[in-house]
Write a structure and sequence with these properties.
The protein is an alpha/beta fold and 259 residues long. The protein has a single domain (51-251), classed as Glycerol-3-phosphate (1)-acyltransferase, CATH 3.40.1130. The chain has helices at 3-24, 32-49, 78-85, 105-111, 122-137, 162-170, 182-185, 217-231, 238-243, 245-251, and strands spanning 51-56, 68-71, 91-96, 115-117, 141-144, 174-180, 196-202. Helix 1 packs antiparallel against helix 2 (32-49), helix 1 runs parallel beside helix 4 (105-111) and helix 2 (32-49) crosses helix 3 (78-85).
Length: 259
């Protein structure tokens, strides 16, 4: 199929799905209908784009309970990848407020009851954390990209600790998720979707009972180690995280971010 035709079909599918989500918003208090529509959008994008998603580790999850999914971030296509990879869950993203400015996409995110965070306002970031807690208590799972932005080379960036604080405060297990190959399918700074295979590894969920909200450094370290093991050579060695001053500064900032 010519790429121009693929692009046209993906654009039409995105517009139709986005409009459907926005129109349904007044009748969809929890955003569950919007999320079901997003699964159809994801299926269509992958079918048209020739993208395959291979998933390992789902057997370790209980679809009847919520999780805080902590995932690495390489590409804008990571969001539909996780929708495809975690079919038994209703997922809500922590999304930076700048995404609301994107025509249609931003409006659809707001209509679908995802959690919007202002990265530069600590009080508003804390309010977003409260909304995320509410979503979890409603039985929904939350997805967080702790790096705060997309990695350009596949290596893990420093982690912010907001998602880990959320997990501890709500006593919700953390499920580490490693995505490999999405950066090749849709590279950072590019808009052309390429055919290819993306692998998703879901590590064994980490119980948060031993941790407290103000003392999450060990939890962050453990989850990062799980993701490095799942991602093979795409992640940075653990020793770098310990010695990296940027990581220490990021872990001291509880603001929630996603790229």
């Amino acid at each position: 199929m010519p790429y121009s035709l693929k692009l046209l079909l993906i654009g039409l599918l995105t517009i139709l799905t986005g409009l459907a989500v926005i129109v349904s918003a007044p009748f969809d208090r929890t955003g569950k209908l919007a999320y079901r529509l997003s699964t159809l959008w994801t299926w269509g994008i992958f079918k048209i784009g020739g993208i395959r998603v291979k998933v390992r580790g789902l057997e370790g999850l209980n679809p009847r309970r919520p999780y805080v999914f902590i995932a690495n971030h390489q590409s804008y296509i990571d969001i539909p990848v996780l929708i495809k990879a975690l079919p038994g869950f209703q997922l809500r993203w922590i999304a930076k407020k700048e995404l609301l400015r994107v025509p249609l996409f931003g409006w659809a995110m707001w209509s679908a009851k995802h959690i919007i965070v202002d990265r530069f306002n600590l009080s508003k970031a804390k309010a977003s954390l409260k909304k995320a807690e509410q979503r979890i208590r409603e039985g929904l799972s939350v997805v967080i990209f702790p790096e705060g932005t997309r990695s350009s080379d596949g290596k893990l960036l420093p982690f912010k600790r907001g998602g880990f604080v959320l997990a501890v405060k709500t006593r919700t297990p953390v499920a580490p998720v490693t995505i490999a190959g999405s950066g090749a399918v849709l590279p950072r700074g590019d808009w052309r979707i390429r055919e290819g295979e993306i692998e998703v590894v879901v590590s064994e969920p980490v119980a948060v009972d031993p941790y407290r909200a103000g003392h999450t450094r060990e939890l962050v370290s453990r989850v990062r180690s799980e993701m490095e093991a799942g991602g093979g050579n795409t992640a940075r060695p653990q020793s770098e995280m310990v010695s990296d001053a940027r990581t220490r500064a990021a872990m001291a900032n509880p603001a929630l971010e996603t790229g």
